[in-house]
Amino acid sequence: MSLIISYPSLVLLFCIVFKSTNALYFHIGETERKCFIEEIPDETTVLLNYKVELYDPRSGGFMPSSPGIGMHVEVKDPDGKVLLSRVYSYEGRISFTSHTPGEHGLCLYSNSTKWIGGTQLRVHLDIQVGEHAIDYATVAQKDKLTELQLRVRQLLDQVDQITKEQNYQRYREERFRQTSESTNQRVFWWSLAQLCILLVMGVWQMRHLKSFFEAKKLV
Fold it and tell me: How confident is the prediction for the chain on average, in pLDDT?
């Protein structure tokens, strides 16, 4: 029995695997606000892991942050509705579930403006989407699953996430089609309005020239 996978399917699987986990770090000042945009399907769990480090001018590197410095985390859905807005400590693990497909905004900024010398912070951020946000070791221990049952659970979650991603791609295509149709319609009506204006101006100029020639007794 052979398994045949089409090229588009491979591309989709590649995008899902490498898009579902994003790890990065960035520097932030005491008055700065860093925002990210993450495209998330509906009814999808998102896990945010972050850790804050404080700049050490003596060593020129970064050291673990003090407990008094934390981060304010704010998450908004594509409609601008706030899903999460809360102050956390210098290291945290945050989870939320999307209810609307589309671009979700994630903003972070410090809860303190009293840093000594206005030093910078380094924030390590790891965004995990879908089945990557599930701690299967905890699930296995809680539900008392065998290794085979846990593997089946992971496969089912992966299939469910692929289905959500495909639905989201169809949603994006529908939105793009609606935007294209709306743009084409506006271009059509604008072109029609320009044509009508040119016709009216042409008629007006012809009448004006006719009146001018008649007044000068040229015709």
Answer: 78
